[in-house]
Design goal:
The complex is a heterodimer.
Chain A: H1 8-30, H2 34-59, H3 63-89, H4 102-126, H5 132-154, H6 158-179, H7 185-212
Helix pairs in contact in A: 1-2, 1-5, 1-6, 2-3, 2-6, 3-7, 4-5, 5-6
Chain B: H1 2-32, H2 42-51, H3 63-82, H4 99-119, H5 123-154, H6 159-168, H7 170-174, H8 176-192, H9 210-213, H10 219-245, H11 256-283, H12 293-312
Classes of the chains: A mainly alpha, B mainly alpha.
Amino acid sequence: MLIQNLGPLASSLFSLLAIVSLLLAFVMLGSRWLKNYLFAFAAESWAIAALSAAVGFYGGYPELYLIAILTLLFRGLLLPYLIWRIIRRLSVDREIHVILQPSTSLVVGAFFVMFALAISYRVAAAFHLELTVAVLALTVLLSMKMIGFLMLAVRHEAISQILGLLVLENGIFLGSQILVPGMPLLIEMVILFDLLIVVACFGALVGYLLTHVGSTSSLDLRRLVG
Amino acid sequence: MRDILLQIAQVLTVLILAPLLQGIILQFEERVQRAQGPGIFQPYRDLWKLFHKQVAVPETATWLFWVTPIVAFTCVLTVPILIPVLTDFPLPLSDMGDILGGGLILTLASFMIILAGLDTSSAYSGIGSSRAVMVAILAEPTLILVFVGITLLAKAMLPFVVNHLLVADWAAYMSPAHLFLVAAFFILLLVETDRMPIHSSTHIEVYMIEEGRILEYSGPLLALLKWASAMKQFILYTIFCNVLILPWGLSIRGTALGALGAAIGLLIKFTLVACVVVFVETAQSRLRFYRYQEPLAASFLLAVLAIVGTQLS
C-alpha cells in the first residue's frame, strides 16, 4: 500500500492538504452567507484535487492525474457554477432563521473532530495502520462527514443542504484518496456524474419549490401532501 | 549577579516600552485611516499628565477602589519575571511559575479591575464589568486550551522550553499544531487587548468594555490602570512573539549588548505584529455586539484542532 512507504515530505504535504480541506469545511460551518459556503466549497474541492494529483505523483498512479483534473473541473468549477446559478435565481442570500448559531456550530464541530480522532485511533489500530497520515486521513474523513451531517441537520435553506451533502461526499472522497488510492477510474467517474445529477435534480427541485411553496427553506414545508 | 540584573532589566523593559507599543499601534491606526495621529509617544504624555492631576473618588467607593490599581499594576509587573522577554534561558526567579501561573496572575489583575468597576455602583462601569466577564467566560477556557496545546507540543509547561524547541526544530515550527496554536492565540490576543471586531476604533463609546470598567477612575490611579493595561498588552505580545511565532532574536549568553539587541529586536517584532493587528482591525468589518462569541468560538476550534494535531504528530 502507498501510505506505508511515504517519504516525510509527501506525508506532510498530504496532511497539509487534508487539514486545509477540514478548515474550509469549518469555514462553511461558521459563515452565514450562502456565497461564502459556495466559495469555501470550491476551494475545498481544489485542495482535494491537489491532493489527488499529489497522491498520483508520489504513489505512481497516472490515472489519478485524470481524476484530479476531473475533480477540479467538476467539483471545483462546474458544481459551484451550477449552484451559483441557483443562488442567483433565489432571493435569499443567507440563512435567516438559524437553528444553531454559527459560533455554537463551530464548537459542536470541534467536539466532532475530537470524537472522530478517538474513533480513528480505534479503526487504525484494528487495521494496523498506526501511521500519522492514515489516522489523520481517517480523522478528516470522519469529521468532514459529521460536519456535513451537521449542516444537513441544522441548516434549512435548500442551498445549504445540498452543500452539506457535497461536503459529506468530499470528505469520503478525500479519505479514500489517501487510504485506498488507485480506486478504479470508472467508479470515480460514476461518483462525479452522480454528483452532477444530484445538483441538477436539486436545481429542478428548487424551481419547483419556488413556484409551489414560494420559499426554499425547509421550515416552510409544514404541510404533508400525498 | 548578572542574572538578577537581567531579570530587573526584563521588568524595566516591559515597564518602559509598554506605552511605546500602545503608541505605535494607535499611531498606525490613525495613519491607516489617513489621519495625522498624535505621534507614537502620546501614551507617555498622557501618563505624565494623569500623574499630575488630583484624584477624584466617588462617594460610593470603598477600599477596593484604592487597592485595585496597585494590585493590577503589581500583577503585570510580576509576569515579566516568568517569561522570556530578553533572554532565552531561565533567570533566577523564572521558575516561580509556568505558563498557567502567568495566565493566573494576569487574570487576577483583570478580576480586581472588574471588582472595582462593580464597586463604585456607577451604571457605566457596572456595564463594563459585566461585559468584561461575559467575554472572559469564553476567553479563559480557550486560553487554557491553548496552553494545553503548547504543553502537549513541547512536552513542558515552561515558555523557555517552547522557545528552544521552536528555534531548534523547523519541523515543529511548521507543524499544523503549532500553526493552529498561533492562529488561536492571535484571536485571543485581539480579544484580550480589547480589539474585538465588536468595537469601533474609538474606545470611549457605547460598546466599550475595558474602558468602561475604569470610567470612574481619575488622576494617578487612572494612570496606573492605563499603564497596567498597556503592560498587559506588551506581555501578551511578548508571549505571542517570543514563545509562539517569532522565537528568534533573544539574548543567548545574556551580555549587556545581547540584552540591548534583544530589546531592539523585540520592538521590531512587535511593530510587525502591530501592523498585522492594525490591518485585521481595519479590514474586519464591525460586527453586531451580540456576535462577540464568534471570534472566540473560532479560537476555541483552532485550539482544539491544535490539540488534535499534537496527538497526531
